[in-house]
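Subject: Vacuolar membrane protease structure
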Amino acid sequence: MSFFFPATAKHKYTLIALLLALFLLISLALSSVQPPAPALTPQTPAAGQFSLIAAQTQLREITRERHPVGSLAHDAVRDYLVAEIKAMGLEPQIHNSFASFEKGTASGQVQNIVVRLSGRNAALDQNKKALLLVAHYDAVPNSFGAGDDGVSVISILQTLRVLKSQAPLANDVICLLSDAEEVGLLGAAGFAKDHTWMKDVGMLLNFDNRGNAGPVLMFEPTAGNGQLITGLAQAVPGVISNSMMYEVYKALPNDTDFTVFRKQGIPGLNFAMIQNISSYHTRYDRSELISPASQQQQGAMMLALVRHFGNQDLTQLTADDHVYFSFPLLGLVHYPVGYALPIALLISALGIACFWLARKHGQVRALATLGASFALLLGLIAIGYLVQQAWNLVFKFYPAYLEMHDQDTGHFYLLGVLLLSALGFGFLQKVLNRWIRVQEWAHGAALIWIVLLLMTSARFPGASFLFAWPLCAVLLSWLLIRLRKIGEDSATYIWLIGAGSVVGIVLFSPLVLLFNIALGFHSLGVPVILFLILLSLLTPLWLWILQECRARYFLLISVVAVVVGAFATAAFHRDFPIPPQLVYVAMPQSQLSYWLTPQQAVNAQLLPMLADNPEHRTVPELFGKNMPRGEWVYWLKPAPDAGIAAPVLQLVSDQVVGDSREITLHISSPDRANHARIQVEGGSVLSARLQGLVLTKEAKEKWTTSVHAMPTEGVNLYLQIAKDQAPASMTVRVTDSFYVLPTTAKNIVAPPATSVDFVAQTISSLQIP
């Protein structure tokens, strides 16, 4: 059986050698983006070394408990970090500030930990700028915060230890262990707003993570990054980064502490590890699950960067943006974005020359080449769409996969899907070969690449390298074949088109994997389409391989990979179960108390308080009519009164000024809730301020905000509403949330934190007369 390609086996040994070379090349490309094996240094290392063992010990200490902002465990982490810094002979500050997220959705009392290491030139030059090193020490409520972002906090401690033991750098180094990043970048906002050292900052390095393994990526520089990229390449030659990440990240709504300083015009670089997203913001973000290799790489990288930029003139960092990308053995290749379009035009001219030579020798026809372009475009879009729909179908048969993001074992699935997609792509070309020749397929793909190259060079120059250099290498190999008049049936021809494919394979292989890791299998079509774009350019090589080697072998490998992936991931959800959520909610004003869970089904063993015929409905009497939470469906049963104090709302003033009413409320939390959610129902808020900070200046219906780590004395909320607002139509509702039961609680017992994600809430409302 020859499947749809009759194997000729004319070049048996060439085929074997080529496949082996491709395997080694892909292995090299993938291994180049993995962190090196960790070096287990002694507990007390030499002065100039990052100590992995010491860092692991410190990380265990700050991740013993979950420590969201406003919790007692969070205060314990703060105190431990302060003690560790003092033990180095440094004087840390606790920077207290009431800060607000720029979008007005969150505010809170923050306690940043800041420390300054003096440079040797600071006293001599008053205009000398300091290097700011940033990581956040808070965590989300259901996480231990090891990867996000305890590992980076500990790397800063280790960096301080090393720098303190050596001769000072030229510049001051300011370390900011920021608070309340997870709830709205509040710590960074507070530092930027009112800390006196902010005016001295000339550059920042921010470290945050969305996983616990894999390479530490530099994924976001500030604009005008030429000098930054040059310095990065010098300080960390093996850094994994490319300017396509920057182009993609700019289009995403994600924020880190880096965002606060970038918007203040501070140049800088943003770093993260992103592998194993299943640990991100979950109970599995624990210290023992952090990759030692990644932790070692981050610590060594941070130290190298601080040493480099700590000796640079930080007032001279503005320059043109650069196109940059990592390449094995070459390090970080970079050049000004102004070169992107001229390079694209030169490569386009090379493509036209190759097409002219092929047409001159009768190897391609213009219309057939154009038809090949359309067929390839339709093919890669169709295959990408079908792959995504097939994976969505898998979710329906096996819903547990909805929680599987990028476990390493899941990469077997990716391999199987890519091989199946490649076979489908080859089948499409084989079917149409009666009308379109191989060379026309190749030049049709080159036309697509030229269009992509010109578009990205003009609009998204940071992504242009991805299409420029693979296309250039392929075109040069074609040009050499045409000029030397090498026949397509010779081994030399095969090796030349193979050599032309090297740049594309080396650049695309890590990107396909990283896109799969970053987006997860929920967006499997994206890495598949990226892979097929490369495969289209390598058409002559791929079709030759299929011609020489029976396609059923590739089909067999793909099926085996999928089966291995299925077996390898089968135990994932037993080993890392997603716990159910349980909410205790009380509204003392209405004498209502409930147990709630938003799960699709009630686990009676883990949630016995919801066993025996619970109701399944919305709860607008608690969360407000026509409000988002009031429209969610819960399983619920009545609960006893736990006696937890509800938030207190007091009307301080209500006056008419011009065409509006100005209302001031005082809100406090007697039991010091972790956070308070404030929502306004039944009217439009024209503007709002909290503790003097502006939250919104635009009219908004169903306006909400949150206060984290509520000050003991409470907060003042100022609201501006329309003067003709109907009487008794507006209600302010405040919900206090506790992740650990306060000592005043009675009559209820929180379930074990090891099996259930628990939160207790109390609600008060105030009707505006």
